[in-house]
Specification:
Elements (H helix, E strand, L loop, with lengths): L1 H18 L5 E6 L3 H10 L1 H4 L8 H19 L8 E2 L7 E5 L2 E9 L5 E10 L25 H17 L6 E10 L4 E9 L5 E7 L6 H5 L12 H13 L3 E8 L10 E10 L3 E10 L3 E10 L8 E9 L2 E11 L8 E14 L2 E15 L3 E16 L2 E20 L8 E11 L9 E12 L5 E13 L42 E14 L2 E13 L7 E12 L2 E9 L9 E7 L3
């Protein structure tokens, strides 16, 4: 027994060097750079496992032995088929230096293989389709090009995508071959696309009874018999989700089995209804409104015609309002964006020496596309008010109106580059359900640019004008005022404008406002800004424009920015600071 243990101990001592853990390994690859160097390191086992604390010296030597083969394989996707490792007779060097190991590979990539011949052919019913003609000219590898696997696969994918977009959804390569003659440095690329039959859309249907079938069909962006398109199906799914009617939308094309010859593709829609009622509660503070809170309700679909009623109440220190609405989808231009809206509003508001109590009811036909919104409607307003030295006045107006807004931005909420411009017009004519006559328009815009990283330049401006005999005949809600969070900062809400004999601001016939702001991103969600505002409301061409300057802090959140500004009304002569707090999207 003692002899057995002596032999076992001797065997352990003999195996100890190869079983010992290896020290850290440094892997050096010379002779290549860029993508070649990166791919070699990604392919070398010895480089990928060099930090493994359990790696033994024996395992290290085995990985080193396989390295030349792995290097050669790593270079072939880039067209290098005769690569060699030159040091130590093509094996590379593996040396132990002190307590660590070093592996060095001197790589000679050799001359690249180049495309000597290229053939891209199309067969089948789609051979003469315009999108599938001359595919060879657009292939990323041409005669003389260095062979590259990524470019080859990209070209194949592009050809199949073109066939699919053209309606040949069964298209496939009957031949896809690259013949490499490494010693001559030449390659022959040959592709043959078999298109299969042209497929078209069949009937689009759903077993869901959420919307009336005729209304649902209006959201389908294609007609029966049109060329089949995945882009159209993706748009259909996106548009149906955007309606708010559905919690789940699955678009299922009913493709025929491979052995069938049917070329028409019916589409089945699997729809699940969204929760009909949405409730909202909110509270906040704004320097223009004071403390405020609100509740809201919206029914996403009160009937199978897609109608949407809503109601909101907002209570605030400086004014409260209740708003009711009723939306009807109406396909004038595009059902996705067109609605006929009926709205009613009751509001009370107080500022300075002005109090208003108004009731409105109106109807508007709107088109709210992502980049442009426009609409026209009619509104009836009854307003009782007290302003300046005129007490307990009232007016009633039937006002046709129209608006247009254009927005160009990748992100309207948190914008790096974007522009918004728009305008509106409204009018009334006595005695046709109106106590006075006027025409009023307003134009304005906002632009945001990021000239360098972490900096934003923000500019905005607006101009408004009212054509009428006397602005005193117009209710305060339709007069122009300046000052406040969204106007000339440094001045109170609606504190700028023409004044009566007692010095009270009573509103003006014209409005001019402009602002420029420079914002610097600090870290994370925080930014700082400096700004300059100018503007006023006035009755004559000699406008006394007031100026404000200040600094601010911004907190950028997914739903917009919280902005805290400190502004000085420099036109008043003496230094004073006014705080402005706002929340909202950039555009």
């Amino acid at each position: 027994m003692a002899a057995f243990f002596r032999h076992l101990w001797l065997l352990f001592l003999l195996l100890l060097p190869s079983a010992a853990f290896a020290a850290p390994v440094t892997v050096i690859v010379r002779g290549v750079d860029g993508e070649l160097h990166k791919n070699i390191l990604a392919s070398l086992s010895i480089a990928q496992q060099k930090e493994d604390a359990q790696l033994s010296a024996g395992q290290l030597r085995q990985m080193h032995k396989r390295a030349p083969e792995q290097i050669a394989a790593a270079l072939k996707p880039f067209g290098y088929y005769v690569a060699t490792v030159n040091n130590n007779k093509g094996r590379g060097l593996l040396e132990k230096r002190g307590q660590s190991w070093q592996a060095v590979y001197e790589v000679d990539a050799g001359p690249p293989v180049r495309v000597d011949s290229l053939s891209v052919e199309v067969s089948g019913p789609g051979k003469e389709h315009q999108a599938l003609k001359n595919l060879q000219a657009g292939f990323p590898l041409q005669r003389g090009s260095q062979l590259n696997d990524a470019a080859y696969e990209k070209g194949k994918k592009s050809i199949l995508s073109a066939a699919l977009a053209a309606g040949y959804i069964r298209a496939k390569f009957s031949e896809s071959r690259v013949e490499v003659r490494a010693k001559k440095g030449k390659a022959a690329v040959r592709l043959r696309l078999e298109t299969g039959p042209l497929h078209v859309f069949g009937q689009t249907f759903s077993s869901s009874l959420i919307l009336r079938p005729e209304l649902l069909q209006r959201y389908v962006p294609y007609q029966t018999g049109e060329v089949y398109s995945l882009v159209a199906l993706n748009r259909l799914q996106s548009d149906l989700y955007a309606t708010g009617y559905f919690s789940q939308v699955t678009v299922e094309p009913k493709l025929a089995a491979a052995e069938e010859t049917r070329e028409e593709v019916p589409v089945e829609l699997h729809l699940a209804p969204a929760l009909k009622n949405r409730y909202s509660f909110g509270a906040g503070y704004g320097t223009d409104t004071g403390v405020r809170g609100g509740i809201g309700w919206k029914n996403r679909m009160i009937n199978r015609l897609g109608h949407k009623p809503s109601f909101n109440i907002q209570l605030a220190e400086k004014g409260s309002k209740a708003v009711g609405g009723y939306e009807i989808p109406l396909p004038v231009f595009d059902l996705r964006y067109d609605t006929l809206s009926f709205d009613t509003l009751y509001s009370e508001e107080t500022w300075d020496e002005t109090e208003i109590n108004q009731y409105t009811i109106g109807a508007t036909l709107k088109h709210n596309a992502p980049e442009y919104q426009f609409g026209a409607g009619v509104e009836y307003l009854h307003e009782a008010y007290s302003v300046g030295d005129r007490q307990d006045d009232s007016t009633w107006l039937l006002m046709p109106n129209a608006f247009l807004t254009l927005i160009f931005a990748e992100n309207r909420v948190n914008t790096d580059h974007g522009i918004r411009v728009g305008g509106s017009i409204r009018a009334a004519q006595a005695p046709y359900l109106a106590s006075t006559s006027f025409v009023q328009f307003r134009v304005g815009g906002k632009a945001i640019f990021s000239p360098v990283d972490k900096w934003r330049l923000i500019g905005r401006g607006s101009f408004g004008a009212t054509m009428m005999d006397s602005i005193n005949e117009l209710p305060p809600s339709l007069r122009f005022y300046a000052g406040g969070d969204q106007s000339v900062r440094g001045y109170g809400y609606k504190r700028l404008g023409p004044k009566d004999d007692s010095g009270r601001v009573v509103g003006g016939q014209y409005l001019s406002e402009a602002s420029v702001e420079l914002e610097r991103k600090l870290s994370g969600i925080w930014s700082a800004a400096v700004f300059y505002d100018i503007g006023n409301a006035y009755d004559s061409i000699d406008a006394d424009l007031q100026q404000g300057v200040g600094v601010g802090v911004r907190m950028t959140l997914p739903f917009g920015q919280i902005r805290l500004d400190l502004a000085d009304p420099i036109s008043e002569g003496s230094f004073s600071v006014r705080i402005h707090l706002t929340l909202g999207a950039d555009l």
